[in-house]
Structure formats: C-alpha cells, structure tokens
Amino acid sequence: MEAVTAVQLTKTYGEVQAVRDLTLHVPQGGVFGLLGAQGAGKTTVIRMLCGLTKPTSGECSVLGCSPAKDPAAVHAVCGVMLASARPYAHMTGQQNLLFFAQAAGMAEKAAERRVSELMKDLELWEERERPVSEYSTGMLQKLSLARALVNYPSVLLLDEPTSGLDYESAHALHALVSQFAAREDTTVLLGTSMMHYAQSICTAYGILEGGELVASGDFQSLREAAGCRAHAEFRLSGGESLEGFRPDETLATGLLEHNGWWRAELRDEEEMPRLLRSIVEHGYDVLEARLVEPTLEDVYKRTLEQHPGKEGTADAHAG
Ligand SMILES: Nc1ncnc2c1ncn2[C@@H]1O[C@H](COP(=O)(O)OP(=O)(O)OP(=O)(O)O)[C@@H](O)[C@H]1O
Fold it and tell me: What InterPro entries is this protein classified in (predicted)?
C-alpha cells in the first residue's frame, strides 16, 4: 500500500487554484520532498492529506485511509507538523506533549515513556518544565516535531519544519527527521522550499509549481529529465583567461568566467580528463580543476524553466 496517494486532487479558493489536478504516488519508506516556492501549494496539499482542508475535487489518502471520509483513521497513522499549529503557551513542553499523546489515545504510562524518550532525543529534556511561552523558535520547532511523532506515526507530514531557524538548527532538525524516519520506519512527506536541506535527506521528490506537479522521481531521474549536466571548472595561474578557448566537442557550452573560475557544462563527465589535458597542452597553467555535479536546486530551476510561464516564480531557497 502507498504511504500517500492523490488522484486529480484540486483545491480552489475563490479565483485561486491552490492545487490543480495533482496525481501523486508516494511509496512507503524514505523521505519524499514536496518542493515548491512560496505559494506553490505545498501547505494546501498537506492540509488536505491530514483532513484540515477538504478538496474541491479529486481524492487523496494516507495509507489507504481517506481524510475526507475517515479523518480519525488518518490521525491514527499520521503525524503532522504545520506552521499554523501552536502549543499551549502557559503549559510546559512536557505537559503539552502529554496532553497531545493522550488526546491521540495513548495510555498514561505509554504516553509518559514516549514523551520522555522524544524530549531526550530532541534535546528538549532540560527544558521540559519550562512554560512553552519561554521557548525559542528552535525549541518550538522541536516541540512541534515531537508532537507530530508522539503516537508513532507511520506517515509524517511536515510543512517547512525549519522555517525561522538558523543554518545550524535547521540542519540539525533535518538530521533528526531523517534519523526518526529510518529508526521508526516512518515515511516522511516534507513540504519545503529549502533545496539544500531537502537534498541532504530526501529519497524522492515532487516539484510543485502554481499548484501543479511538474515533475517527480528520484534525484537521478529528475536530473536526467531536466538535462542537467556536470560542470567543469578551472582556475588558472596568475588569473590567466580561457576566453575563446574552444577545445573540441567535450563542452556543451562555452567557457564563462565567474569569480576567477572558468566554467562550462560538459557533454559527459567522462570528458573531464580529456578537457583538462587539452587545456594543459594548449599551454595554460591550471592551478585548480574541479568537476561540479548539479545540485537539487539546479535541477529544480531547470525543471521549472522547461515548464513555460512557471520559471518566473522559481525563487526557492538554497538553504
Ligand atoms: N485559506 C486560503 N484562502 C485563500 N487562498 C489561499 C488559502 N490558503 C492558501 N491560499 C492560496 O493558495 C495558494 C497556495 O498556497 P499554499 O499555502 O498551499 O502554498 P505553499 O507552497 O505552502 O506556500 P508557502 O511556502 O508560502 O507556505 C497561494 O496562492 C495562497 O495564497
């Protein structure tokens, strides 16, 4: 059974089509990145999956359970972390988690054990008796993740879990998500515009733009579909120029300079040694040479460029 399924899922708010005709199949296991810039429709998809918003048309399910028809069944198997969810500020972190664990139907002792375990793993243990109103943004995000994980969900839906966090904290939180997913055999659907973090933890992706799914698959298949090749980069001794150097057919594009590096797209990365040899044979002194593989952000941008009219909104973050 698939972890998440959507078939022709559509959500309209007045004139705005937040999600259009989305068909998505996420298998169990791994971390699926639902990528998109601001307003692409990620939150709306997640809200429909957890039953907070009803689709205008089409269907979706989580482990075969329909949030529209049987929200209780979805809540039993699914944990959700949404930016809009707020803990009770006057209660401590521990009290909040115990409250949500028991609201999810856990017995008192089991809830206590799970809350202690999560607070320790997420490094919130020292803060357990502080009221949540005193928590920092990072602590609140961890508490929110702990809440989503409290009843051992089989599927975890996360909407921009690191928004508002600095680089180190965001990196640490993504690493925790990845560890929990592997350790507890949880499938994660991560809605994000942070390509750098997504690339470090996701096993497959769906690219959402203007509410439509424009591509999906693992990194390699998205990269191939987008035609993203590796780049060769060279820095020459004494700041020498490679302008006009046209070796042979190894390059897909001309060499361009950026911050002292001469850069061009290779037709095939296996061409790198031949290109390097050719530059040296033409008498240039190569100080440094490197092969740069495309990142998820490169693939994402190229994918949007291939969908006319959509590239103007490709302002996702590198992380
Ligand atoms: N309750 C609502 N009423 C009206 N329009 C809405 C509502 N919720 C979302 N939208 C619109 O639907 C579109 C998709 O929004 P959504 O929040 O799903 O995008 P997102 O990819 O999650 O963006 P962000 O990263 O900014 O959260 C946007 O144009 C947004 O303005």
Answer: AAA+_ATPase, ABC_transporter-like_ATP-bd, P-loop_NTPase
Interval 251-276: pLDDT, tens: 667 788 888 899 888 888 888 888 88
Ligand 1 atom with the shortest distance to the CA of 208 = 21
For the stretch 87-139, pLDDT in tens is 888 899 999 999 999 998 899 999 999 999 999 988 899 999 999 999 988 88
Q: Would you say the CB of residue 18 lies under 6 angstroms from ligand 1?
A: yes
216 and 233 both lie in a single domain: no
Per-residue model confidence as pLDDT tens digits over 196-238: 999 999 999 999 999 999 999 999 999 999 999 998 999 999 8
Number of folded domains that form the chain: 2
ipTM of this predicted structure: 0.95
What phi and psi, each to the nearest 5 degrees, are found at residue 81? -125, 110
- Taking the centre of ligand 1 as the mean of its atom positions, its distance from the CA of residue 80, in whole angstroms, is 17
Q: Which atom of ligand 1 is nearest to the CA of 45?
A: 18
pTM, full prediction: 0.88
Q: Does residue 256 sit within a domain?
A: yes
Q: What is the CATH number of the domain that holds 169?
A: 3.40.50.300
Edge-first strand order for the sheet with 187-192 is 78-81, 155-159, 187-192, 31-35, 204-209, 212-217
